[in-house]
Design brief:
about 300 residues, mainly alpha
């Protein structure tokens, strides 16, 4: 019974419950510190439920990557907090009049921010599989050999910066408020937990609209021939437009299917991963070359 309830309510709990709590915190005027508490609480909840109802129990076993993943989380989320704090400074350099619809309810503003930013982030992600210098940074994220919620936050800080700029620049130019941007950061954390989750939660037809775990696992397949699909962060809309959406309900993805095919020994240590993209002697990975994809959702 517990497993059925977790599978049934996991997606709405994170997607609606987590963001709903964050919106309540901002609406009531509480300190934004509580948004960090909300994000951390859902990270802990993800850890617990992934052990209760795993898609693959092997994904819960450490590959010597727990400390590395925590350091990525610490550095990347700290940079997000600093980014939010700098919004007033950035706004002072933007002479454009605000066109952000701040009269809308916060939940509608957040939804609008998500849809706008998702386009830029998805395109930056797509480009990162086709431009060598971007792939070398992005490869850090693709080096994972297991998928569980927390390693969705595992990215090279420079690549996170690039994706963040791609997604938030339109929002800043439109005059988005600091409150909505803070909610957006929480939404990103919750979405990454969902997208990389090791919980076998029910998705139904939402898998064709939302970039959730059953869809995103295909993106982490270790060969470009299979993994060059499903680039969206929040939705699959841009993938449908690019012709890169793919899902196969018959496919079961395990540990041996993940990683970077031509770099099976990619380093696991945090500092080694930070410098890996700048090693001149490193061979160019296959994933950076780019591949054509079937516009009807077929394999690339």
């Amino acid at each position: 019974m517990l497993k059925f309830l977790v599978r049934l309510f996991y997606l709405p709990l994170f997607l609606i419950g987590g963001n709903g709590i964050a919106i309540y915190v901002v609406t009531m005027g509480y300190s934004k510190f509580w948004l960090l508490v909300v994000a951390f609480a859902f990270i802990v909840l993800a850890f617990l439920l992934e052990r209760a109802v795993p898609y693959d129990a092997a994904f819960n076993k450490s590959h010597g990557d727990r400390v590395r993943d925590f350091l990525h989380f610490l550095v990347n989320e700290a940079s997000n907090v600093l980014g939010i704090a700098s919004v007033p400074i950035a706004a002072s350099f933007i002479a454009l009049p605000s066109v952000w619809p701040d009269s809308l309810p916060l939940w509608q503003q957040l939804l609008l921010a998500v849809f706008i930013a998702d386009i830029g982030i998805t395109l930056a992600h797509f480009a990162s599989h086709r431009i060598g210098v971007l792939w070398r940074l992005h490869a850090v994220h693709h080096s994972v050999k297991r998928m569980y919620g927390f390693n969705g936050l595992m990215k090279h800080p420079l690549h996170q910066f690039i994706e963040t700029i791609a997604g938030t620049t339109p929002l800043l130019l439109m005059g988005i408020s600091q409150d909505v941007l803070a909610l957006f950061v929480v939404a990103v954390v919750l979405q990454l937990l969902l997208q990389h989750s090791n919980v076998a939660y029910f998705t139904g037809p939402l898998k064709y609209l939302l970039a959730i775990n059953v869809v995103h696992r295909f993106h982490h397949l270790k060969t470009a021939e299979e993994g060059d699909v499903n680039f969206g962060l929040f939705t699959t809309l841009t993938d449908w437009f690019l012709g890169t959406y793919f899902y196969d309900k018959r496919r079961t993805i395990g540990e041996g299917d993940l990683g970077i095919g031509d770099q099976p020994d990619y380093p696991v240590g945090y500092l080694k991963e930070l410098v890996m993209p700048f090693r001149k002697s490193r061979p160019e990975p296959t994933m950076a070359l780019g591949h054509e994809s079937n516009a009807e959702g077929g394999k690339p």
